[in-house]
Every structure is written in C-alpha cells, then in structure tokens.
Design brief:
The protein is of the alpha/beta class. It is built from ten helices and 14 strands. It has two domains: about 200 residues, DHBP synthase (Alpha-Beta Complex); about 90 residues, no CATH class. Strand 2 and strand 3 form a beta hairpin. It is globular and about 60 Å long. The structure holds threonylcarbamoyladenylate (TXA) and magnesium ion.
C-alpha cells in the first residue's frame, strides 16, 4: 500500500470548518503562517501534541510554540508582564514569539518540561481564523521533518510529511516572510534575551522596548556549538546535498564551478547567465532586497536540493541588521556539518 499522502485543502469556509473540527478531535493539520508552514494540533491536548513530535521525528526535549488568535488570549496561557503590551501592539499579529512563564493548562510536553511557554499571534489571517474556529490555542512547529529545510508552500508540507499521521494541509499560498519568527525570552522583562533571529529585526524590538536585547553568539559552522535554546542546534534547516557558503560568488567563480555543482546567489547577476546555466545558477532576489531574499530562501534551497547536484554553493550576506541575522543564521545552520 502506498504511504498515506496528506491532502491539500483550498481555504474555503467549508474546508476551514472541517479542518477546525479535525483539530478539535485531536488531529494534526498543516497550516499556513506568514513565516513558514506549521504542523498544528490542539495545544491543550497532550496526545495531539505528542503526535506532532512523532510526525516530525522531533526529540521531546525541543519545545513547541503556542499560537493564539489574538493578544487578548495571552493571559489564558502565560503570566504576562508590563513589557508585553507595547511589543504586542507593535508586532502582533506577526513574526514575534515571546517566551514567558507558563500557566498549568499548558501540557509539559509542549514546553519540554520547562516552566516557560513560547507564544505568538501569527500574521497569516487563515491561521488565526483556524485557531478561532477550533476554539483553542494551537501548538505548531515548522511542518518539516526534524532538521530539514522549513516549508514555505503547502506542497512542501505534503511532500515532506507523507507517510506520517498528517492527513490535511490548509493551502494559504506562499509564505510572505519566509523565515521563522524572532524568539524573544521575556521571562525577565528587565533582561530581554534573543533566542532566535527571525522575521522581526532585533533593533525594532529594542526601539519598542526602550532597552537593549541580549543577543546570543551567532550560529557557528561547528556542530559542537552550544545550543542557546533547545532545538537551536548548529545543524538545522539542512539540504541533503552538502552546502558550502561564500562571501560572494562572482562571474569568475561561477564559470569555474564543476558541471555537477550548483549555486545560489543573493541577487540576479549583472551579466546574464547563459540559458544552459539557468538550472544550476539560481538567485534569491532581483535586486538584493533582504525581504525578497528571506521569502525565497527555503524554497530555492529545496529546489536545488532536489536537483541531484553533488554540491551546492551559496552566498552568505554580510550585516547585523534587519533580516540579515535571520538569513545568515539559517544559511550557517544549513551548511553546518552533521
Ligand atoms: O515562525 C515560526 O515561529 C514557526 C511558525 C509555524 O509559527 N514555528 C517554528 O517552530 O519555527 P519551531 O518548533 O520550528 O521552532 C520553535 C523554536 C524551537 O527552536 C524551540 O526550541 C523554541 O522555539 N522554543 C519553544 N518553546 C521554548 C521555550 N519555552 N523556551 C525556549 N525556547 C523555546
Ligand atoms: Mg523548525
């Protein structure tokens, strides 16, 4: 018998009602977020959450993010503090996750036994609508097999999680942000700590908080790097094809590439690539705009990974502001040795 393949549902009112009912019964559903697709389940149902870990092949030490339909629901899952309101006003719904002391209704499985819970209000309106219809918070990690490239289209979820307990994916189109949410530890509001760079720039958080955010050491290329948060492994988001990073790949470097290797550029090269090269020389943006680079990063990496190349090469952007730290983090982890 062929492995069960999840079905992709168009976002009609009838389908949304059907998927919300499935979530209430404890099923898994693939959901579109503005960042990456999520693998959602009822956050208050430990058995449903356990199925997330099994489907992803994710270790139980790696906690899940809880998603809410609106910021006003936050006091139902976490202990709030004064630093939250301005952040929520500025960035929710959107790609910001806050780590806060948890309330007892949140199963220990979700938080990997920690006293804190990660929470966000997602920017994608279909995700929020599904939470509203399900009538409960939804736990959701990115909907990829553990360690592989995150999904930014419904088909990525279907293809990656075929053969698991997942039966349904809600199609919300291509993710507009393309990298995961920024995770901020606000357990101690006087000492906010960045746990993962993501779709919201840290300097934007600092402006709203009116104080500096403590940053972790950026991802290193060594697999032995200490993980600043569970799940923040050195090697993550990885293609199966070996990936090598470069500060820049100029025309001479591209001309010198062996015929069985492919390259991913940050921007369209000034000199037009020969038609025969278009298959193995790809770019993330027309002009180098970082939002466009972030939006296309995971999908292009997947395409190249499926191309049968012996090795992939990618340009690593330089910089410490805006979306650059998130793009660098994902590329460095994708290139880290297993
Ligand atoms: O954009 C996103 O955040 C997506 C969408 C689906 O919302 N979700 C996502 O989830 O990226 P995931 O599971 O792939 O990454 C969540 C990260 C993990 O690295 C986990 O360790 C961290 O959040 N995390 C969750 N709860 C935590 C906690 N209580 N303390 C510290 N880190 C936590
Ligand atoms: Mg993930």
């Amino acid at each position: 018998m062929p492995a069960p393949r999840p079905r992709i549902f168009r976002p009609t009112p009838a389908n949304l009602a059907r998927l919300a009912a499935a979530l209430r019964r404890g099923a898994l559903v693939g959901v579109p977020a503005e960042t990456v697709y999520g693998l959602a389940a009822d956050a208050l149902d430990p058995a449903a959450c356990a199925a997330i870990f099994t489907a992803k092949g994710r270790p139980s030490t790696d906690p899940l993010i809880v998603h809410l339909a609106a910021a006003r629901d936050l006091p139902k899952v976490a202990i709030t503090n004064a630093a939250i309101a301005p952040l929520a006003r500025a960035f929710w719904p959107g790609p910001l996750t806050l780590v806060l002391p948890k309330l007892s209704c949140i199963p220990d499985l979700i938080t990997a036994g920690r006293p804190t819970v990660a929470v966000r209000v997602p920017g994608h309106p279909l995700f929020r609508e599904l939470i509203r219809l399900a009538g409960r918070p939804l736990a959701a990690p990115s909907a990829n097999p553990f360690g592989y490239i995150s999904p930014t289209r419904a088909a990525h979820v279907r293809d990656g999680l075929t053969g698991t307990a997942l039966r349904a994916v809600l199609d919300g189109g291509e993710c507009t942000v393309g990298v995961e949410s920024t995770i901020l530890d606000l357990t101690d509001p006087d000492h906010p700590r960045l746990l993962r760079p993501g779709g919201i720039a840290v300097e934007a958080l600092e402006r709203v908080l009116g104080r500096p955010v403590l940053r972790p050491k950026p991802a290193r290329l060594s697999p032995a790097a200490a993980a600043p948060a569970p799940g923040m492994l050195a090697q993550h988001y990885s293609p199966r094809t070996p990936l090598q990073l470069h500060p820049r790949l100029d025309v001479a470097a591209l001309d010198a590439l062996p015929a069985d290797e492919a390259a991913l550029l940050l921007a369209k090269p000034a000199r037009l690539v020969r038609a025969t090269e278009r298959k193995r020389i790809r770019w993330l943006s027309e002009t180098g705009a970082e939002a466009e680079i972030a939006r296309h990063l995971f999908a292009r990496l997947r395409e190249l990974d499926a191309g049968g190349w012996r090795r992939l090469h990618a340009e690593l952007p330089a910089g410490t502001e805006g979306l650059v730290p998130a793009i660098r983090d994902r590329l460095l982890r994708a290139a880290a040795k297993r």
